Amino acid sequence: MRIALLQMTSGIDPLANAAVLTDAVAQAAAGGAAVLFTPEMSGLIDRDRSRAAAVLADEAGDPVLAAVRTAAAEHCVWVQLGSLAIRRPDGKLANRGFMIGPDSMVRARYDKLHLFDVALASGERWQESAAYAPGDEAVVVDTPAGPLGLSICYDMRFPGLYRALSDAGAELLAVPSAFTRPTGAAHWHVLLRARAIEAAAFVIAAAQTGVHADGRETYGHSLVVDPWGTVLLDMGDAPGVGFAELDRTVLRDVRERLPVLRHRRAIPPVERVA
């Protein structure tokens, strides 16, 4: 199964970002991919919340989602739209990912469970929970490439989510991201390879890259990792569309030879000894 990943540098203009996304859908189709994966915050990256507020919309009114749905149908490609900032009825935002079918229909939605509230040694501070509400569901959706578990960026640091997704039948794990450069250099490859190995699943992580219009810098290195932990694709720093082949016999072989999913047990209560 051939898949495509978009590595992009989203800016502060949703319509410009939508043009990049729809072009990537066309490139994915021309390259023979059945599914295109895009990064977290594909529609907008803007740390100026007052400026961003002027262009953010609810799901029904979001122009980026509408453009990608139209392109998916035009080119007959599935699109895992990594995430968009979507207005909720309660006034908060959702960091929401979408699985879009080749008929333009939204097949699944996932709101990011773990919000990025951190202070880094570089001086960067991020408080995602100031504007966003966390999700409350884990999601697996059937795709042409296999059952796909949805997650977003910071989620990758919480292996319990991926255990739940693989227990529910996920054979692929989407991890669209906008990773900072300091955390990316230190943790990106090792965390994604670990998630693939422990779940015996393919990990597909489309990423933001470069210096964004709002001054933010992201790490890039969109990855595809197989269930053995082998990196099948690393897109480096440059924006663009990359392709990878997923061999499902590798997944079957790994799960038969090293059946970690069958060996999982409920963890008993921890005894704390002084």
In summary, what is this structure?
This protein has seven helices and 16 strands.
> In what order do the strands lie side by side in the largest sheet?
5-4-3-2-1-16
Structural class: alpha/beta
Please work out how many helical segments DSSP would assign: 7
Overall radius of gyration: 18 Å
Element order: H for helix, E for strand:
EHEHHEEEEEEEHEHEEEEEEHH
| Poorly predicted regions | none
| Number of DSSP strand runs | 16
Major sheet size, sense and barrel closure: 6 strands, mixed
Helical residue percent band: 25-40%
The CA-CA distance between the termini, in Å, is 53 Å
Strand content: 25-35%
How does this structure look, described?
This protein is α/β, with parallel strands linked by helices and 274 residues long. It has seven helices and 16 strands. The strands form four sheets. A six-stranded mixed sheet has the order 5-4-3-2-1-16. Strands 8-9-10-11-14-15 form a six-stranded mixed sheet, with helices on one face. It has a two-stranded antiparallel ribbon with strand order 6-7. The mean pLDDT is 96.
Task: Based on the model shown, name its key terms.
7 helices; 274 residues
SSE layout and pairing:
Blueprint: E1 2-7, H1 14-30, E2 35-37, H2 49-53, H3 63-75, E3 78-87, E4 93-100, E5 106-111, E6 117-119, E7 125-127, E8 140-143, E9 146-150, H4 159-167, E10 172-174, H5 181-199, E11 202-205, E12 209-211, E13 217-219, E14 223-225, E15 231-234, E16 240-245, H6 248-257, H7 260-263
Parallel strand pairs: 1-2, 2-3, 9-10, 10-11
Antiparallel strand pairs: 1-16, 3-4, 4-5, 6-7, 8-9, 11-14, 12-13, 14-15
